[in-house]
């Protein structure tokens, strides 16, 4: 089967997963969640403490009523919404979710169609767990894809310069919906900043909007991991799995930024 980039896709079974097995074999049970009457600042702390970038929202009966993401909080903050309000004021109510009886093969297709990175897992609308792209992709760390990072990556990725303010970077993230932005100087990769980094900075500065005028370099990760465009895709998966990250900037032998590879890019060539 031809993938979106014209290379032969890798079969799901190469990972050791069976497409006919139910998704509860890879689901994270007892997920971190929030109640619909909690305030946004409390949920932001819960999200940052747990390291999750999306949290399901439930009512008192444990029925799924919404979902919230890191980007939703950044968008609300940029609009200067009061983050002491209840999460119900900004949560996404029309939640795309999967059933615990769904197969892994069906889940794979839902990921591709929805372009979402994760789903709440329910049974009779009761929250049972969470499942993400990573729960599939990580199983391919020992599988030789047979094609390179350069064939799978997103080419000419959006990037920013370190001399801009944190506010300008935040605006770029919210407008583009990119959760990870590489920093470039003279075409070379010099760092990376994530939505998680910015939200953590905002909280540490007591949600003070003035603090966003500080230079982006104050929060940049300059010891940045990257992938070589010529290495097999499985090598990038190993790095992402080890560091618990969802994407890597891609460089040539001279450190020039050439692309970005994410779990979603990899998922697109799994068939």
Describe the structure.
The chain contains nine helices and 13 strands. By secondary structure, the chain is of the alpha/beta class. It has two domains: 121 residues, CBS-domain; 128 residues, CBS-domain, CATH 3.10.580.10. Helix 2 packs across helix 6 and helix 2 crosses helix 7. It is flat. The relative contact order is 0.17.
Put the structure in a nutshell.
28% of the residues lie in helices and 21% in strands.
Task: Spell out the key features of this protein.
CBS-domain; flat; 13 strands; four-stranded mixed sheet; about 270 residues; alpha/beta; disordered N terminus
Number of domains: 2
User: Total number of helical segments?
Assistant: 9
Taking the alpha carbons of the first and last residues, their distance comes to 8 Å
Elements, N to C (H/E): EEHEEHEHEEHHEHEEHEHEEH
CATH homology group of the largest domain: CBS-domain
| Radius of gyration over C-alpha positions, nearest whole angstrom | 19 Å
Beta-strand level of the residues, as a percent range? 15-25%
CATH fold naming of the largest domain: CBS-domain
The largest sheet has its strands arranged as 1-7-6-5
What does the average pLDDT come to? 93
Q: List how many beta strands DSSP finds.
A: 13
- Low-pLDDT runs of 5+ residues are 1-5
Quaternary state of this entry equals: single chain
């Amino acid at each position: 089967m031809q993938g979106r980039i014209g290379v032969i896709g890798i079969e799901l079974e190469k990972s050791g997963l069976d497409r006919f097995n139910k998704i509860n074999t890879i689901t994270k049970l007892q997920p971190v969640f929030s109640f619909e009457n909690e305030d946004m600042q409390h949920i932001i702390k819960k999200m940052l403490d747990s390291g999750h970038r999306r949290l399901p929202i439930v009512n008192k009966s444990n029925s799924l009523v919404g979902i919230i993401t890191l980007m939703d909080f950044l968008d609300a903050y940029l609009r200067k919404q009061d983050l002491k309000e209840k999460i119900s004021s900004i949560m996404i109510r029309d939640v795309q979710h999967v059933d615990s009886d769904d197969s892994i093969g069906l889940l794979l297709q839902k990921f591709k169609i929805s372009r979402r990175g994760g789903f709440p897992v329910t049974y009779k609308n009761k929250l049972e767990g969470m499942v993400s792209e990573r729960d599939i992709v990580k199983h391919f760390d020992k599988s030789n894809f047979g094609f390179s990072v350069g064939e799978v990556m997103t080419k000419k990725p959006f990037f920013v310069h370190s001399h801009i303010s944190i506010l300008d970077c935040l605006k770029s993230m919210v407008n583009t919906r990119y959760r990870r932005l590489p920093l470039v100087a003279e075409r070379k990769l010099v760092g990376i900043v994530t939505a998680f980094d910015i939200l953590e900075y905002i909280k540490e500065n007591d949600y003070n909007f003035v603090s966003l005028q500080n230079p982006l370099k104050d929060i940049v990760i300059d010891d940045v991991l990257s992938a070589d465009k010529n290495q097999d895709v499985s090598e990038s998966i190993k790095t992402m799995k080890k560091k618990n990250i969802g994407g890597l900037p891609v460089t040539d032998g001279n450190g020039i930024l050439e692309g970005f590879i994410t779990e979603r890019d990899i998922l697109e060539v799994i068939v």
